[in-house]
Specification:
alpha/beta, TIM Barrel, four-stranded antiparallel sheet
Amino acid sequence: MNRWIIPAVGGLVVTLVTVSISIGRLSPSPDPHGPVTPAAPLGKVLPTAPVKQVTELLSAERVKALRSAQWKAIARRSSIVVLNSWDYRLIPVLKHANPGVQVWVYKDLSGVRSDDCLTTTGNCGSCARGVTDSKFLSSGMGYCWVRRHHPDWLLHRAGTGQPLEFNGYPKTWETDYGNSSYLHRWIQNVVADVHRHGWDGVKVDNALTTADAYGITQEYPTSAAVQRATHSAIREVSPAMRRAQIRAVFNVGFAPVFPGLWQRWLRAVDGLQQEFYLSFSTQPDAVGRAWTAYEAEIRSCVRQHKSCWFHTGSQSGMVTGQTRNYSLASFLLATDARQHLAVGNSARLAMAPCWSMGRPLGPGHHVGGAAWQRTFTAGIAVVNPTRSSVTVDLGRTYYGAGGQALSAITLRPASGVALGTSRPGTCHEHRQPAAHRS
């Protein structure tokens, strides 16, 4: 929700940092202490392009703080940029800097905001006479429109019977995402916004899976009821977007907690977003079976030929170098040319890997019993998804970002590395000031 490698081993540092802001619930990892379960190898291995980055900029303050040179850098480093509806004027700015960048709009599937009104404060209050919704909304419809025309579309908090305001996110109210009439109106309005302003796609947030994501409702009091409603919603929304020739990716929370849910829901959509890939903090959070579950999500996207987004440490101001490295190396083990990666929500822009990894020569596989690696025509990715240090014989000489030659490497727990077959050019970072209140 929008109130939104390579190692740190020795001296090797190649950073991948994507500017991104988003809000969402933390996605816990299943049994993080369990062993790493081998994943089935992929059948067809597709060529890998340079790592594709998705950048979400959903904070009005941060958008306002960015300058022209920073927007150009964002456009050039990103394959997809996600903005709020009211920032549509940035579409030509980004595309002028990078004609190949796609600019998507954020839309909440299961909530409306009561601070999207044309008042001096922006707050709708009780939607008194004369108070109108903004023309540009973060959801499929305005709060006052719902109150006046379909108050029955506001879900009610269990135990009180009052409309449910999201826990932790004031002025956002849960709506009846399982109601076909609600979805019809949502689709109609979102399609109109996309076509009117020239968005390339829609990031659909809050495809809920748990009853207590933002508070338990009377209408969907169990996780099973929530999942039935959400699955029905995405099966209605996704085909409608396709008919309108609009791509959509759905942000699914807590997917690893429910084995098989990601794979089932993926069949109905263009793609899914894992908002907390391997970490929901500054540090790596997933090892063992939890790491395997996240990797299985990437592999299922590859098998189903879908484009999915994987975001590490979504709410963290600045993830650690170890977390960035672990994320990128793990991502490289399974990705094909369709997947996208984001790391952290920092405003700092950093260089992507200083070399192209080239084409994968096979799927990721076990080495030394604990570590995993994947070899490319111009590099190698190695990951240790366990709680013990491991040493890996690389089989030949590879080079780190600083030009260090390595034929073996020791990886500490929950860490990873991407190395090249030749010495790269100098890696350096371009920094920009952190966002500030003006």
